[in-house]
Design brief:
Layout: E1 4-6, E2 18-21, E3 30-44, E4 47-52, E5 61-65, E6 68-70, E7 79-85, E8 96-105, E9 107-110, E10 112-114, H1 116-121, E11 128-134, E12 137-145, E13 151-157, E14 167-173, E15 183-191, H2 193-196, E16 203-208, E17 218-222
Parallel strand pairs: 1-6, 5-8, 9-15, 10-13, 14-16
Antiparallel strand pairs: 2-3, 3-4, 3-7, 4-5, 7-8, 11-12, 12-15, 13-14, 16-17
Length: 225
């Protein structure tokens, strides 16, 4: 019998490592539940496949689950937040099978070059919870009101793209007339590949209007190999 997991369309999912009792309400054994932002590479023969980089330029890891992912937007190459467990003989961070618990699409965007004034204006308030780089992606989590049609955008100040440290700006937008809902933790995965792949680039400086901490509104990410 084929197994299916239907993806969650909203990216309002908390991404934290947590402990979950196998038998809720008991003192029985517990299992680690891991949550990572990954690239979905497709499903075939009842198996779903993912590529995962833990941090910075760590090696890519191939993960696969014996379930088929169904849902609009679940196309090869899309970014997802997955929750999964490992069998007892498996080690976290190594290629191999996983027991998929949940999969959710995340907000995506790819960096584009814009004039300096337009880049600096891309500064909507974002109550940032965390931001980190995995390969050619900047992943972030923020506490924002749910809103239909919300998007994230990452732009590069075109006056800096020929330097060794281009300046990138992250913002979020909702359509006019959109009614905000409840606050939730949202996840975005933003591709910086068009800038990162330049041989002259040794890193990027990210600007974000972080209303959770005004002292962490500029973050630098450097190539490590």
């Amino acid at each position: 019998m084929k197994k299916y997991i239907t993806i969650l369309i909203l990216a309002a999912v908390t991404a934290i490592s947590m402990q979950s009792c196998l038998d809720s309400g008991s003192d029985g054994p517990s299992v680690n539940i891991y949550q990572n932002v990954v690239t979905f590479t497709g499903s075939s023969d009842g198996r779903s496949n993912f590529l995962f980089q833990e941090l910075n330029d760590s090696p890519e890891v191939s993960l696969y689950a014996n379930v088929t992912i169904k849902g609009d937007g679940a196309v090869p190459g899309c970014r997802m937040l997955i929750a999964y467990t490992l069998d007892e003989n498996r080690v976290y961070g190594e290629s191999g099978p996983i027991n998929l618990r949940q999969a959710a699409l995340v907000y995506e965007s790819t960096v584009t070059e814009v004039p300096a004034d337009e880049a600096k204006a891309a500064n909507a308030p974002i109550p940032l919870l965390t931001m980190y780089r995995t390969g050619k992606y900047i992943n972030l989590q923020a506490r924002l009101a749910t809103a239909e049609g919300r998007t994230f955008r990452i732009v590069a100040d075109e006056s800096t793209v020929d330097t060794d440290m281009p300046h990138l700006y992250i913002t979020t937008e909702v359509p006019d007339g959109s009614i905000p809902g409840y606050d939730a933790t949202v996840t975005a995965s933003l591709s910086i590949a068009p800038i990162w792949d330049r041989p002259s680039v040794r890193g990027v400086k990210i600007h974000v209007n972080n209303t959770n901490n005004i002292y962490h509104q500029e973050l630098e990410f450097l190539k490590t190999n």
